[in-house]
């Protein structure tokens, strides 16, 4: 059984990692300098985008995890794996991704409250709102603590392999930096509970907030200028587009549940392809944000139009000089 990491897999992670980092950085600069018409909401978008960039940089360029599904094992082959145990790298990954979910919800919740205050309907007290956000942030932290303790301690790994996977001891011990997770433990159960609780609440509340915002927008239309009304509507559409893009986050989890139904080589292929798709989520999110947010889209269109005009001017100038000669 080959537990090695394919060369194409590592190459893809480096390529998508560099591309996503550059794209995320460009979007962050746009959010900072070209968000005059987005009011204070830009800070929530900025926080979400920063964590997208951090998560992508961490996973693609530093960790490069590979899931060996038959053994509930993660092998890390990135540069950071030289200096830090895989278990620490993976709980950091889970934490960054969990915070992404919460920040996306925060974007929806803040926009919902901005509209609710105009209509004076469904306004949530600030202390209750902040308490819920704190609870949502605590769930990924608690999940990561549980996840850490499901990992087999480094000094006990060899004995655990002798007990659980004796036929594959040589292959597993040949891995450079890996962590094996215990399946049927209290910590694993609580890890799943915390992840499911936080994830379900985020998705449910985003759906409810979206429906409520759509209902509230029509009655408050008379209280708002056309410009403000269109502004709120465009922000909601942009958030919905980003929410659809972030659904890519669910793909690895759904695919991993089915891998054990297949032979090892087929399951390994499914896992690797799934991780590659997963790593494109940040780039997709950035492109969706650029396409669905008018200030950023208009800025890019003006820049592209300006470059085309310069190229056209140079071409016309060259042709004119050629004709004169």
Short overview:
The chain has helices at residues 7-33, 42-63, 86-119, 126-150, 157-164, 169-173, 186-220, 226-246, 250-258, 264-278, 281-292, 294-324, and strands at residues 65-68, 73-76, 178-180.
The main pleated sheet reads as:
3 strands, antiparallel
CATH fold-level topology: Rhopdopsin 7-helix transmembrane proteins
- The low-pLDDT segments are none
Characterize the overall form. globular
Q: What proportion of the residues form beta strands (DSSP E)?
A: under 5%
How many DSSP-defined strands? 3
Helix vs. strand class:
mainly alpha
Radius of gyration, taken over Cα atoms and rounded to an integer in Å? 24 Å
As an assembly, this protein is single chain
Widest sheet: strand ordering: 1-2-3
CATH architecture label: Up-down Bundle
The H/E string reads HHEEHHHHEHHHHHH
CATH class: Mainly Alpha
DSSP summary: helix tally: 12
Query: What gap, in angstroms, lies between the N and C termini?
Result: 72 Å
| Overall number of structural domains | 1
Rounded mean pLDDT score: 82
CATH superfamily: Rhodopsin 7-helix transmembrane proteins
Query: Portion of residues in helices?
Result: over 70%
What can you tell me about this protein's structure?
The protein is mostly helical and 325 residues long. The protein has a single domain (7-292), classed as Rhodopsin 7-helix transmembrane proteins (Rhopdopsin 7-helix transmembrane proteins, Up-down Bundle). The chain has twelve helices and three strands, in the order H-H-E-E-H-H-H-H-E-H-H-H-H-H-H. The protein has helices at 7-33, 42-63, 86-119, 126-150, 157-164, 169-173, 186-220, 226-246, 250-258, 264-278, 281-292, 294-324; strands at residues 65-68, 73-76, 178-180. Strands 1-2-3 form a three-stranded antiparallel β-sheet. The chain is globular, with a radius of gyration of 24 Å. The termini are far apart.
């Amino acid at each position: 059984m080959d537990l090695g990491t394919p060369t194409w897999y590592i190459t893809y992670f480096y390529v998508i990692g560099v591309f996503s980092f550059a794209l995320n950085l460009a979007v962050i600069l746009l959010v900072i300098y070209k968000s005059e018409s987005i009011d204070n909401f830009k800070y929530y978008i900025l926080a979400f985008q920063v964590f997208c960039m951090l998560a992508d940089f961490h996973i693609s360029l530093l960790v490069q995890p590979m899931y060996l599904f038959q053994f509930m094992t993660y092998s890390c082959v990135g540069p950071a794996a030289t200096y830090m145990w895989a278990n620490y790298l993976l709980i950091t990954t889970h934490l960054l991704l969990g915070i992404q979910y919460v920040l996306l919800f925060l974007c929806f919740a803040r926009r919902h409250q901005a509209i609710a205050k105009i209509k004076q309907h469904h306004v949530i007290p600030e202390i209750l709102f902040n308490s819920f956000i704190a609870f949502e942030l605590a769930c990924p932290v608690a999940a990561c603590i549980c996840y850490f303790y499901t990992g087999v301690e480094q000094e006990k790994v060899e004995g655990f392999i002798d007990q659980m996977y004796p036929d594959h001891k040589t292959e597993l011990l040949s891995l450079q930096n890996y962590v094996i997770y215990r399946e049927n433990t209290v910590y694993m159960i609580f890890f799943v509970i915390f992840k499911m609780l936080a994830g379900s609440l985020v998705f449910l509340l985003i759906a409810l907030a979206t429906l409520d915002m759509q209902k509230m927008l029509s009655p408050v239309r008379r209280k708002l200028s056309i410009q403000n009304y269109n502004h709120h509507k465009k922000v909601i559409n942009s958030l919905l587009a980003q929410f659809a893009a972030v659904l890519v986050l669910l793909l690895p989890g759904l695919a991993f549940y089915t891998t054990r139904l297949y032979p090892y080589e087929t399951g390994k292929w499914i896992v690797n392809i799934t991780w590659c798709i997963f790593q494109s989520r940040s780039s997709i999110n950035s492109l969706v944000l650029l396409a669905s947010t008018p200030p950023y889209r208009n800025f890019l269109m003006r820049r592209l139009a300006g470059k085309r005009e310069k190229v056209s001017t140079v071409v016309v100038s060259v042709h004119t000089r050629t004709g004169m000669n």
